[in-house]
Sequence to fold (648 residues):
Amino acid sequence: MSLQIDNILDPPHNSAAFAAWAQVYDAQSNPLLALEERYLRCVLPSVDGKDILDAGCGTGRWLRRLANLGTPRSLHGIDSSSEMLAVARHACVGKTSFVLAQLPVVPLLSASIDLALCSFVLSYVSDINALASQLHRVLRDKGDLLLTDMHPDTALALGWQRSFRSSDTTFHLHVEPHSIEEISHAFERQGFQIAALYQPSFGETEYPIFASRGKEASYTNSAGRPAIYLLHLKPKATDASRNRTTLANADFALGAQESDSGEMIIQDGVITSLLSGRVLHRAQNDIDLSGFTLFPGLINAHDHLEFGLFPRLGNPPYPNATEWGRDIHESFRPLIEKHTRVPRDVRIWWGAIRNLLCGATTVCHHNPDHYAFRDPLFPVRVAAEFDWAHSLAFSNDLVSIHGRSDPSRPFILHACEGIDAAACDEFTQLLEMRLLDDRTILVHGLAMSLEEIDILNRYGASLIICPSSNNFLFSRAPSTEQLSTVDRLAIGSDSPLTADGDLLDEIRFCHSNLQLCSSRLFRFVTQTPAAMLHLQNHAGRIHPDFSADLFAVRSSSLLPAQQLVSLSWHDIELVIVAGSIRLASDEMMQRLPAELSSRLSPLSVEGVTRWIAAPVVSLFESAARILGVDGVSINGRRISIPDAQHVD
Fold:
């Protein structure tokens, strides 16, 4: 498909055009397909273990991509062009079946598909009601259907046509124009409901495709207009939910470079729909987020929550982490004893609030489980489905600990934390102990060589880095060269004992000091740790059926990843965990309905007020009894309880 416009008449049928197109389809760059791929990768449900249908699969473009995005149980392609299918059969490997059929006919068994995709297909189907009926028949009750196509409004406004060139001939394709409203109503009549509607515009990523064809004017003319639509549908389900909140008129960070604007509906703590467009008439529980961008809640892949109130301790540099541990217990014993007199549960709560303040909604706590984590009011999620040991130095009989662990869960331990021979030797010891496999997650890895990182990748193991902590302890952080070679990488904030601050501080350190690109950093605190820690559908993405774990900051002209690497805790103005408001700024308190803000209490951080869903007064008093009123701080930032406040 191209965006060229000429006077060649459309042929009455498309079969000859599709036959010619099959030979060049995969070789021709197309800004519409590039935009679709960029967004669809962000909003696709998981493909693992699913039976998947690509209806109108063409040359198998998406079937190949879907096979590489996970481990689907089966892949099925349907197309009306034998020439297109011939290319697809040659290009697709593995368990992929193909059927020659003309949509709306879908010759598959009823309730046999979990995920169906129709990519740039509906414009060639005259009877969309029949297609909707067929797709509803083959889709299972909790299945997903994604429809994508050229945006009909923009195509009409700018005179876009479906055409391509092959062998010096321009082919125009006959299409059936359908409005998004018409499509939505047709599928709703056949038993579907809308889970999400995205209407993205071309961005800088697509510009080179226009420029390569001398079509810069077309790019400029389309600026600000939606170029395509992506419609996510699900079979209708009985709505038994009681708690519903709408976040209206917000921008959504869907990916590192992908965003949209509109409303999000949250029911019983889960995102049920994302709809592009402004909401003009607000309901009682709506929150107007005009001027704000919602990000997926960050995942802090490594923390020790019980040290949330501690100051930074040490006399660096050290050769390894063991020497640091020995030194601080000698040099700072009175201070450590003083802080540990604060009850452990109180310190753990402050560690959670430390994460909440920076937009981290899920934390991997690398220490024993604690009953506080199961308190329904606990400020953040704490990852629980993993096994762990501290390190080679502090864990007796590591082989037995690993052997007793659940082979289906991640296994986490500190390793190679230092710069001396002892730290460098730890990777070899882990290899000799046969502790490296696809569930192993090493924390720090500073002393690992490039060859050892290659071995780590070959075993399918993962790495969590805490660079500012390494930099403080050893005057050295992981090199850009090291980190660029790690396949599975996430970021943790470690604890205030050694780190610069919170997870946002760590992100900025990685961007400024290690020159890690913003897009990679976005993934390192969202989708990558979610996959590493087996977090399923409650972290790392803004997506229908995912838990509403979110934070909001003021919108900017930057791409989501670019904005993320510029943020500090001052910028976080709203945090939501499982659909529940956990943090709000003064301005957000003005926007929240009374029933959603009544449980929030004011907390002053360096003179900045944040309203927190936690017993902050009792937590502060418990800490202040030991540390003094002026001695309670997080990341070196003084904490206090403001005078009683009232927000009109």
In short: The first strand starts at residue 51 and ends at 55. Residues 600 and 613 are 5 Å apart (CA to CA). Confidence is low (pLDDT under 50) at residues 1-12. The chain has two domains: 15-237, 298-594+620-637.
